[in-house]
Amino acid sequence: xxxxxxxxxxxxxxxxxxxxxxxxxxxxxxxxxxxxxxxxxxxxxxxxxxxxxxxxxxxxxxxxxxxxxxxxxxxxxxxxxxxxxxxxxxxxxxxxxxxxxxxxxxxxxxxxxxxxxxxxxxxxxxxxxxxxxxxxxxxxxxxxxxxxxxxxxxxxxxxxxxxxxxxxxxxxxxxxxxxxxxxxxxxxxxxxxxxxxxxxxxxxxxxxxxxxxxxxxxxxxxxxxxxxxxxxxxxxxxxxxxxxxxxxxxxxxxxxxxxxxxxxxxxxxxxxxxxxxxxxxxxxxxxxxxxxxxxxxxxxxxxxxxxxxxxxxxxxxxxxxxxxxxxxxxxxxxxxxxxxxxxxxxxxxxxxxxxxxxxxxxxxxxxxxxxxxxxxxxxxxxxxxxxxxxxxxxxxxxxxxxxxxxxxxxxxxxxxxxxxxxxxxxxxxxxxxxxxxxxxxxxxxxxxxxxxxxxxxxxxxxxxxxxxxxxxxxxxxxxxxxxxxxxxxxxx
Length: 492
Hints:
disordered N terminus; five-stranded antiparallel beta sheet
């Protein structure tokens, strides 16, 4: 439903499916709009104008796959400024793309065409951490790593951790309901967010902030905005529950010969480590061969050599008693080795070794991106069939492109697999591979009653599947009504 008329392109909202968007026309932003928006900003806000190339930092996604044509980026400092901006755009029927750190992997944070980008990077104050309740109040533009540092200095832990924590923003994390490696231990953001402040499409500032752990007074509206990907409103403030920082931390980097051994090791970890188990990360040999170019893998088949085992695990514990936790980890490792589930492994002896193990796991994504064009799939499937789908896709791809790689890693404890295909040395999309693997992967996921998006969201990458492969028609019909209530002109 993109049309053209006097004044330029008419725009669709950025990442919400067309079938869920009211059939409206959208005006192309003009220089006079830029002047009007600038007049709505206070001293702390700013506006950038220029060609799409000049604003490439905001127009191009992290994967360099989706490219917008925005010529206006507004960087407000306060929710009130955002309210005035959205009110103006709503009245003028101008499309708006909320943008945080722009680290998403499904194209949801960049324009479809030339919509105005509203960046939250200047709304970045950390207001306080209540030392009695452990509730952190901060603005949406805070970098996740900064929140980790702030909370750790006060003996608390932010319950979400991602490889992109150095650049992603907490508002974007909430808007996409980001998962991460500690999902198994601490739960989703739905479980950890107590309150939100959100600016709606008409400029209304909706105050849903709350620092009470129990509040049973009507609908819990915050949950509508967690995972909404900026299509219902722009999140500006967050109340986040932060547990006490564990005093002990252990990690082991383990190798397995078969995926059956991986499952047995996972079962044993849950039994032996119990409440201490904080992360159980999976990596296959294919992806670690790419990571190996930058990081030394501490466990190999030939000792100091480069040959890798088929599967690797990063198992981490966090607890409150160092001796107790170390004993539990030692017992787990002994039993896993005695049962021949684990063929080799190393146990961290210092905090720096733990960080080196995590650096290997967190380099899986950048290493794959640097290898060639990257087809990324973030899926949820039953743990018992976790690797079956990777083997299916690998066989299908090799029949067409024997040089292509299928590399895999993920959060196996919650069934989340990051399945990736890459063409080494080739950074342009091979449409034959796309036509082959996309239906193959999604069919395999649906057949296993999984999800085609475990934690990355839909964005522009998967929005067309709403009502077919993602959610049923009845659910989508209700989503349409919710969207129409919060954003009747579909500007977001």
